[in-house]
Amino acid sequence: MLSRVRADLHVHTCLSPCAELEMSPRKIVAEAVRKGIGLLAITDHNSAANVTAVMQAAIGSPVEVVAGMEVCSEEEVHVLALFDSQEKALDLQSLVYGHLAGRNDPDTFGLQVIANEQDEVISLEERLLTGAASLSVGRIVEEIHARDGIVIASHVDRESYSVISQLGFIPAGLEFDALELTRHCSTTEARSRFSSCRGAVLVRNSDAHALAAVGTNVTEYLMECASHHELRKALNGEDGRKVLTEV
Amino acid sequence: MTLNEVAKALDLKVRCCESNLERDVTGGYVGDLLSDVIANSRAGSLWITMQVHVNIVAVAVLKELTGIVVVQGREPAEETLKKAVEEHVPILVSPVPAFETAGALSALLTKGP
Description:
A: TIM Barrel, 11 strands
Protein backbone atom coordinates (compact mmCIF):
# COMPACT_ATOMS: atom_id res chain seq x y z
CA MET A 1 0.00 0.00 0.00
CA LEU A 2 1.24 3.46 -0.87
CA SER A 3 1.63 6.08 1.81
CA ARG A 4 3.11 9.54 2.26
CA VAL A 5 6.78 9.63 3.14
CA ARG A 6 8.42 12.87 4.20
CA ALA A 7 12.00 12.97 2.93
CA ASP A 8 14.95 15.24 3.58
CA LEU A 9 17.53 14.33 0.95
CA HIS A 10 20.15 16.97 1.70
CA VAL A 11 21.62 16.99 5.19
CA HIS A 12 25.23 17.74 6.16
CA THR A 13 26.99 16.29 9.19
CA CYS A 14 29.85 17.64 11.29
CA LEU A 15 32.14 16.33 8.53
CA SER A 16 31.23 19.29 6.33
CA PRO A 17 33.43 22.18 7.49
CA CYS A 18 30.57 24.66 7.17
CA ALA A 19 28.22 22.54 9.32
CA GLU A 20 27.81 22.89 13.07
CA LEU A 21 29.56 20.41 15.37
CA GLU A 22 26.14 19.49 16.77
CA MET A 23 25.44 17.68 13.46
CA SER A 24 26.46 14.32 14.90
CA PRO A 25 24.95 11.00 13.81
CA ARG A 26 22.67 10.39 16.82
CA LYS A 27 21.50 13.98 17.07
CA ILE A 28 20.66 14.16 13.37
CA VAL A 29 18.64 10.94 13.58
CA ALA A 30 16.83 12.12 16.72
CA GLU A 31 15.98 15.43 15.04
CA ALA A 32 14.76 13.66 11.90
CA VAL A 33 12.52 11.41 14.02
CA ARG A 34 11.15 14.45 15.83
CA LYS A 35 10.35 16.14 12.49
CA GLY A 36 8.59 13.07 11.09
CA ILE A 37 11.21 12.38 8.41
CA GLY A 38 10.97 8.87 6.95
CA LEU A 39 13.78 9.08 4.42
CA LEU A 40 16.99 10.96 5.22
CA ALA A 41 19.99 11.38 2.93
CA ILE A 42 23.39 12.26 4.34
CA THR A 43 25.18 14.50 1.86
CA ASP A 44 28.47 15.95 3.04
CA HIS A 45 30.67 17.99 0.73
CA ASN A 46 32.76 15.65 -1.44
CA SER A 47 32.73 12.87 1.17
CA ALA A 48 30.61 9.99 2.44
CA ALA A 49 32.78 9.27 5.46
CA ASN A 50 29.98 9.81 8.03
CA VAL A 51 27.25 7.94 6.15
CA THR A 52 27.82 4.57 7.82
CA ALA A 53 27.77 6.11 11.29
CA VAL A 54 24.42 7.79 10.66
CA MET A 55 23.03 4.55 9.19
CA GLN A 56 24.08 2.69 12.32
CA ALA A 57 22.70 5.41 14.56
CA ALA A 58 19.34 5.04 12.77
CA ILE A 59 19.00 1.28 13.34
CA GLY A 60 15.80 0.69 15.27
CA SER A 61 14.46 4.16 14.44
CA PRO A 62 11.70 4.97 11.94
CA VAL A 63 14.24 6.79 9.74
CA GLU A 64 15.70 5.14 6.66
CA VAL A 65 19.10 6.60 5.75
CA VAL A 66 20.25 7.03 2.16
CA ALA A 67 24.00 7.06 1.46
CA GLY A 68 24.82 10.27 -0.31
CA MET A 69 27.30 13.02 -1.04
CA GLU A 70 27.19 16.57 -2.34
CA VAL A 71 29.84 16.72 -5.02
CA CYS A 72 31.33 20.02 -6.21
CA SER A 73 32.32 19.90 -9.88
CA GLU A 74 35.14 21.84 -11.56
CA GLU A 75 32.54 24.37 -12.73
CA GLU A 76 31.63 24.74 -9.03
CA VAL A 77 28.22 23.18 -9.56
CA HIS A 78 26.89 21.26 -6.54
CA VAL A 79 25.08 18.00 -7.21
CA LEU A 80 23.57 15.51 -4.79
CA ALA A 81 24.45 11.86 -5.35
CA LEU A 82 22.14 9.36 -3.64
CA PHE A 83 22.99 5.66 -3.60
CA ASP A 84 21.34 2.41 -2.55
CA SER A 85 24.37 1.38 -0.47
CA GLN A 86 27.23 2.99 1.41
CA GLU A 87 29.66 0.92 -0.69
CA LYS A 88 28.61 2.77 -3.83
CA ALA A 89 28.85 6.11 -2.06
CA LEU A 90 32.34 5.25 -0.84
CA ASP A 91 33.27 4.13 -4.34
CA LEU A 92 32.31 7.56 -5.68
CA GLN A 93 34.18 9.08 -2.75
CA SER A 94 37.40 7.36 -3.93
CA LEU A 95 36.99 8.93 -7.36
CA VAL A 96 36.25 12.37 -5.90
CA TYR A 97 39.14 12.19 -3.40
CA GLY A 98 41.47 11.48 -6.33
CA HIS A 99 40.40 14.78 -7.87
CA LEU A 100 40.47 17.02 -4.78
CA ALA A 101 43.36 19.32 -4.01
CA GLY A 102 44.42 21.14 -0.85
CA ARG A 103 44.38 20.65 2.92
CA ASN A 104 41.68 21.96 5.23
CA ASP A 105 42.46 24.91 7.46
CA PRO A 106 40.02 24.42 10.38
CA ASP A 107 40.43 28.02 11.57
CA THR A 108 39.24 29.30 8.20
CA PHE A 109 36.74 26.69 7.04
CA GLY A 110 35.81 24.74 10.17
CA LEU A 111 36.48 21.29 11.57
CA GLN A 112 35.80 18.18 9.47
CA VAL A 113 34.85 15.57 12.06
CA ILE A 114 34.51 11.90 11.25
CA ALA A 115 32.27 10.45 13.96
CA ASN A 116 30.95 7.05 14.99
CA GLU A 117 27.35 6.05 15.76
CA GLN A 118 27.94 6.90 19.45
CA ASP A 119 28.69 10.52 18.48
CA GLU A 120 32.34 10.05 19.36
CA VAL A 121 35.10 11.70 17.32
CA ILE A 122 37.05 9.14 15.32
CA SER A 123 39.34 11.50 13.43
CA LEU A 124 39.55 14.78 11.58
CA GLU A 125 39.46 14.67 7.78
CA GLU A 126 42.40 16.63 6.39
CA ARG A 127 41.41 16.97 2.74
CA LEU A 128 39.91 20.31 1.74
CA LEU A 129 36.34 19.04 1.38
CA THR A 130 35.00 22.49 0.65
CA GLY A 131 36.95 22.63 -2.61
CA ALA A 132 35.94 21.63 -6.12
CA ALA A 133 36.82 18.26 -7.62
CA SER A 134 38.62 18.50 -10.96
CA LEU A 135 35.80 16.58 -12.64
CA SER A 136 33.26 18.13 -15.00
CA VAL A 137 29.64 18.16 -13.91
CA GLY A 138 28.82 15.96 -16.90
CA ARG A 139 31.36 13.35 -15.81
CA ILE A 140 30.09 13.45 -12.22
CA VAL A 141 26.50 12.87 -13.32
CA GLU A 142 27.64 9.94 -15.48
CA GLU A 143 29.68 8.44 -12.64
CA ILE A 144 26.72 8.66 -10.25
CA HIS A 145 24.35 7.08 -12.74
CA ALA A 146 26.92 4.35 -13.49
CA ARG A 147 26.64 3.42 -9.80
CA ASP A 148 22.82 3.31 -9.96
CA GLY A 149 22.67 6.62 -8.13
CA ILE A 150 20.05 9.34 -8.19
CA VAL A 151 21.33 12.81 -9.17
CA ILE A 152 19.69 15.96 -7.88
CA ALA A 153 20.93 19.42 -8.88
CA SER A 154 21.46 21.24 -5.56
CA HIS A 155 19.66 24.50 -4.73
CA VAL A 156 19.04 25.58 -8.35
CA ASP A 157 17.57 28.90 -7.24
CA ARG A 158 20.75 29.97 -5.44
CA GLU A 159 23.10 32.65 -6.77
CA SER A 160 26.14 30.46 -6.22
CA TYR A 161 27.17 26.84 -6.62
CA SER A 162 24.05 25.94 -8.59
CA VAL A 163 23.97 24.55 -12.12
CA ILE A 164 22.06 27.62 -13.25
CA SER A 165 24.33 30.19 -11.57
CA GLN A 166 27.47 28.51 -12.89
CA LEU A 167 26.34 27.38 -16.35
CA GLY A 168 23.50 29.79 -17.07
CA PHE A 169 21.07 27.01 -17.96
CA ILE A 170 20.88 23.21 -17.90
CA PRO A 171 22.49 21.98 -21.10
CA ALA A 172 21.19 19.14 -23.27
CA GLY A 173 22.66 15.83 -22.21
CA LEU A 174 23.01 16.71 -18.54
CA GLU A 175 20.43 14.40 -17.00
CA PHE A 176 19.32 15.31 -13.50
CA ASP A 177 16.69 13.16 -11.82
CA ALA A 178 15.38 16.20 -9.95
CA LEU A 179 16.11 19.85 -9.25
CA GLU A 180 16.24 21.06 -5.65
CA LEU A 181 14.69 24.30 -4.44
CA THR A 182 15.66 26.17 -1.30
CA ARG A 183 13.21 27.64 1.18
CA HIS A 184 13.81 31.04 -0.43
CA CYS A 185 12.14 29.92 -3.67
CA SER A 186 8.36 30.23 -3.65
CA THR A 187 6.20 27.78 -5.58
CA THR A 188 5.26 30.57 -7.98
CA GLU A 189 8.89 31.46 -8.64
CA ALA A 190 9.76 27.79 -9.00
CA ARG A 191 7.10 27.29 -11.67
CA SER A 192 8.05 30.36 -13.66
CA ARG A 193 11.81 29.85 -13.48
CA PHE A 194 12.35 26.11 -13.45
CA SER A 195 9.34 24.19 -14.72
CA SER A 196 10.63 24.39 -18.31
CA CYS A 197 14.10 23.17 -17.33
CA ARG A 198 15.39 19.78 -18.30
CA GLY A 199 14.77 17.21 -15.57
CA ALA A 200 12.18 19.46 -14.05
CA VAL A 201 11.02 17.27 -11.19
CA LEU A 202 11.15 19.90 -8.48
CA VAL A 203 11.83 18.85 -4.90
CA ARG A 204 12.66 20.60 -1.67
CA ASN A 205 15.27 19.65 0.94
CA SER A 206 16.67 21.38 3.98
CA ASP A 207 20.39 21.54 3.07
CA ALA A 208 20.69 21.51 6.86
CA HIS A 209 24.00 22.60 8.37
CA ALA A 210 22.48 22.91 11.86
CA LEU A 211 20.09 20.64 13.80
CA ALA A 212 17.12 23.00 13.81
CA ALA A 213 17.06 23.02 10.00
CA VAL A 214 16.85 19.22 9.61
CA GLY A 215 13.47 18.27 8.18
CA THR A 216 12.46 21.81 7.23
CA ASN A 217 11.56 22.80 3.64
CA VAL A 218 11.01 19.17 2.64
CA THR A 219 8.93 17.33 0.04
CA GLU A 220 6.58 14.41 0.59
CA TYR A 221 6.49 11.43 -1.72
CA LEU A 222 3.91 8.72 -2.28
CA MET A 223 5.76 5.44 -1.87
CA GLU A 224 5.34 1.88 -0.65
CA CYS A 225 8.12 2.30 1.89
CA ALA A 226 10.97 4.70 2.57
CA SER A 227 13.82 3.47 0.36
CA HIS A 228 16.17 4.54 -2.39
CA HIS A 229 14.38 2.20 -4.80
CA GLU A 230 10.98 3.69 -4.02
CA LEU A 231 12.40 7.21 -4.24
CA ARG A 232 13.58 6.54 -7.77
CA LYS A 233 10.12 5.26 -8.69
CA ALA A 234 8.51 8.34 -7.18
CA LEU A 235 10.85 10.69 -9.08
CA ASN A 236 10.06 8.80 -12.28
CA GLY A 237 6.34 8.65 -11.50
CA GLU A 238 6.28 4.85 -11.81
CA ASP A 239 3.66 2.42 -10.48
CA GLY A 240 1.61 5.11 -8.79
CA ARG A 241 4.57 6.45 -6.85
CA LYS A 242 4.98 10.18 -7.16
CA VAL A 243 6.26 13.45 -5.81
CA LEU A 244 3.47 15.05 -3.83
CA THR A 245 2.80 18.76 -3.85
CA GLU A 246 5.62 20.86 -2.51
CA VAL A 247 5.29 21.64 1.17
CA MET B 1 39.82 46.93 -33.43
CA THR B 2 39.42 43.45 -34.87
CA LEU B 3 39.70 40.25 -32.90
CA ASN B 4 42.68 39.34 -35.04
CA GLU B 5 44.51 42.51 -33.96
CA VAL B 6 43.61 41.88 -30.32
CA ALA B 7 44.86 38.30 -30.55
CA LYS B 8 48.21 39.45 -31.94
CA ALA B 9 48.66 42.28 -29.44
CA LEU B 10 47.81 40.08 -26.43
CA ASP B 11 49.59 37.02 -27.82
CA LEU B 12 46.46 34.87 -27.60
CA LYS B 13 46.43 31.45 -29.27
CA VAL B 14 43.43 30.79 -31.51
CA ARG B 15 41.81 27.42 -30.86
CA CYS B 16 39.02 27.58 -33.44
CA CYS B 17 37.21 29.70 -36.04
CA GLU B 18 40.32 31.37 -37.47
CA SER B 19 38.21 32.67 -40.35
CA ASN B 20 35.98 34.62 -37.95
CA LEU B 21 38.62 36.95 -36.52
CA GLU B 22 37.76 40.06 -38.53
CA ARG B 23 34.93 40.93 -36.15
CA ASP B 24 35.18 44.13 -34.19
CA VAL B 25 35.95 43.97 -30.47
CA THR B 26 34.05 46.86 -28.87
CA GLY B 27 34.62 46.00 -25.22
CA GLY B 28 35.42 43.26 -22.77
CA TYR B 29 33.68 41.28 -20.03
CA VAL B 30 35.16 39.07 -17.32
CA GLY B 31 33.02 36.40 -15.69
CA ASP B 32 32.93 32.74 -14.69
CA LEU B 33 29.29 32.68 -13.61
CA LEU B 34 27.40 32.18 -16.83
CA SER B 35 24.21 33.51 -15.29
CA ASP B 36 26.04 36.80 -14.67
CA VAL B 37 27.46 36.92 -18.20
CA ILE B 38 23.96 36.35 -19.60
CA ALA B 39 22.63 39.17 -17.45
CA ASN B 40 25.39 41.76 -17.84
CA SER B 41 27.67 41.31 -20.85
CA ARG B 42 27.22 43.47 -23.95
CA ALA B 43 27.19 42.53 -27.63
CA GLY B 44 30.55 42.96 -29.33
CA SER B 45 32.55 42.31 -26.16
CA LEU B 46 35.35 39.81 -25.88
CA TRP B 47 34.57 37.48 -22.98
CA ILE B 48 37.37 36.49 -20.62
CA THR B 49 36.66 33.41 -18.50
CA MET B 50 37.99 30.28 -16.81
CA GLN B 51 34.91 28.24 -17.65
CA VAL B 52 35.48 25.63 -20.36
CA HIS B 53 32.05 23.96 -20.27
CA VAL B 54 30.18 23.73 -23.58
CA ASN B 55 27.57 26.19 -22.31
CA ILE B 56 30.00 29.08 -22.82
CA VAL B 57 29.38 28.81 -26.58
CA ALA B 58 25.62 29.17 -26.18
CA VAL B 59 26.09 32.20 -23.92
CA ALA B 60 28.44 33.84 -26.47
CA VAL B 61 25.89 33.26 -29.25
CA LEU B 62 22.99 34.49 -27.12
CA LYS B 63 24.81 37.69 -26.15
CA GLU B 64 26.47 38.22 -29.58
CA LEU B 65 29.93 38.32 -28.01
CA THR B 66 32.88 38.64 -30.38
CA GLY B 67 34.67 35.65 -28.96
CA ILE B 68 35.85 33.89 -25.82
CA VAL B 69 39.27 33.99 -24.20
CA VAL B 70 39.92 31.07 -21.86
CA VAL B 71 42.59 32.14 -19.40
CA GLN B 72 45.18 30.73 -17.00
CA GLY B 73 46.39 28.11 -19.46
CA ARG B 74 43.13 26.18 -19.37
CA GLU B 75 41.96 24.50 -22.56
CA PRO B 76 38.38 24.38 -23.83
CA ALA B 77 36.77 20.94 -23.57
CA GLU B 78 36.58 18.96 -26.83
CA GLU B 79 32.79 19.23 -26.87
CA THR B 80 33.08 23.00 -26.38
CA LEU B 81 35.41 23.39 -29.38
CA LYS B 82 33.11 21.28 -31.54
CA LYS B 83 30.13 23.44 -30.64
CA ALA B 84 32.12 26.65 -31.13
CA VAL B 85 33.04 25.61 -34.68
CA GLU B 86 29.37 24.86 -35.42
CA GLU B 87 28.31 28.24 -34.05
CA HIS B 88 31.28 30.22 -35.46
CA VAL B 89 32.36 31.46 -32.03
CA PRO B 90 36.13 32.02 -31.92
CA ILE B 91 37.80 30.60 -28.81
CA LEU B 92 41.26 31.82 -27.89
CA VAL B 93 43.48 30.89 -24.98
CA SER B 94 45.81 32.87 -22.76
CA PRO B 95 48.47 31.45 -20.45
CA VAL B 96 48.03 34.33 -17.98
CA PRO B 97 45.19 34.88 -15.47
CA ALA B 98 42.02 36.89 -16.12
CA PHE B 99 43.37 39.97 -14.32
CA GLU B 100 46.38 40.40 -16.62
CA THR B 101 44.40 39.45 -19.72
CA ALA B 102 41.63 41.94 -18.94
CA GLY B 103 44.15 44.64 -18.03
CA ALA B 104 45.97 44.23 -21.34
CA LEU B 105 42.70 44.22 -23.31
CA SER B 106 41.43 47.28 -21.48
CA ALA B 107 44.68 49.20 -22.16
CA LEU B 108 44.61 48.14 -25.79
CA LEU B 109 41.02 49.23 -26.33
CA THR B 110 41.64 52.55 -24.55
CA LYS B 111 44.93 53.52 -26.14
CA GLY B 112 44.89 51.59 -29.37
CA PRO B 113 47.68 49.33 -30.63
